[in-house]
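[job 4471] stage=fold_predict status=RUNNING
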Amino acid sequence: MFELSKDWSQLPSLWSALAERGSTDMDGLPRLEVQPRWEVPDTVVITAAASGRILREESADRSAGFGLDIDSFITAAVDSIEAGAVGIHLDILGMPKIAESGLTVPEAYSKIYAGINERTGRDWICDANVLNGTSFDENMFAITAGLAETVPMAPNFPVPWMESAAHVASEHGVRLVFSIHSAAEVLPREPAGAVERDPEGEAGVGDPDRLPVRRLDDPAGHLPELAEGHDDRAHRDLRPDPRDRP
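[job 4471] inference complete, writing structure tokens
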């Protein structure tokens, strides 16, 4: 974890931490078409991603109707809230007109947040992206400024940055929500061919077709072993109940 007693404006941003760590196998999101479908329950909590960033990155044909600048982001967010969404994912990544406006992350976030509140009288949850900014201080702005009620966290970022962000969120009473983009992020495993068999041979591990895999999230071996072919798609991103707030 970062030494948070230091000036946060001098601590690495997420992008700096990523550049220092280098790329990993989990950096690229799988295309929507190849991700496994899941059974939608009767009752769901919807947080709208009004920017449409991922859809826009995948296909220009799908971007119609999503916000392209601050005003259209606010309009899309308010329309979503009025239609029943309980929250808005505050995210300006992939929106060139906002980047070209010259506004800092704190200025853009504050303007969008205030604009949404001005245009709707409904209560809504601010689910803030904490990836934006040129320093850790800017990354954490939505939390420290009191805008965010929840912040999503994908598990493929540099560990010191994730630990620091989680600590800041906890200290400010903001809920950290794991954002899972694919099954690969749930239970990381050794690459194929890098797993060693039991030294006593196949008989010592049971079915030779279900070779135990060391869990990278549990190097000490305290958690149960997984076998190759284990279906971990049942692990889902659990959003908080909007009625149960800090």
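[job 4471] summary: The helical segments are 14-21, 53-58, 70-82, 96-99, 105-119, 136-139, 141-144, 159-171.
[job 4471] exit 0
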